[in-house]
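Researcher: Next entry in the queue.
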Amino acid sequence: MSSPGSLSSALPRRVSWAEQTRIILAKDVAIELRTGEVVTTSAFFGFVIVIMSSISFYDSDLTRAEVASGSIWLPTAFAAVLSLSRTWQRERQERAFDGLLVSPLSYSAIFMGKALGMFLFLLAVEAGVVPTAALLFNIDLMRFGPTILLIALCATPGIAAAGALFGVMTVRTSARDLVLAIVLFPLLSPTLMAVVGATRDLLDGQPFDVLLGWFKVMWIFDLAFLAGGLSLFGPLAESG
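Model: Structure for this entry, 240 residues:
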């Protein structure tokens, strides 16, 4: 006869929300470490755009702040859409995403795990794009680097959350890349304008108080996309 202790140990363990999020994040990171397709493809794309921008638009130090700020973040935005598309393409293979939806994992944990994975991928892309732009535009990273890093850490969560939320709409769509770009770019416009404006003012030597207004815009949209993703990911996934 089985004892009460052995019966309780045989019952399935309840997995916390944080552990569910970690499972999704670990899955995406493990696949990326094995293949490297998302970061490698997106980073190379970003390199090419930065180099083309420096050759085409950089005239003198008088225009450095305006051109460099756009050359850092616009390639990052395009690389973000590319990396998001590649990330969701994995879920389409062999109906992997359907397997996630029927699993015991909560929809909000799936969203947060995907968003954190995209956040890490985008930071890796930015880690390559920013030094390249700094080299080509003669930006002193010892002076401006910490604030540029702070800008990236404030803007990237919103981009990643928006990609995780609206990328789910493209899982079962035939024109996936087109739909993602059409939906995502208008929604990211305020964040992109804020991040470009903050970088431009930083390189122009403006005080941090001037940059603070741009940071507030980034924080607002970070919270909006995170809150929207936690509440809307499930309905979008089921209706997709």
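Model: The CA atoms of residues 198 and 211 lie 5 Å apart.
Researcher: Noted, moving on.
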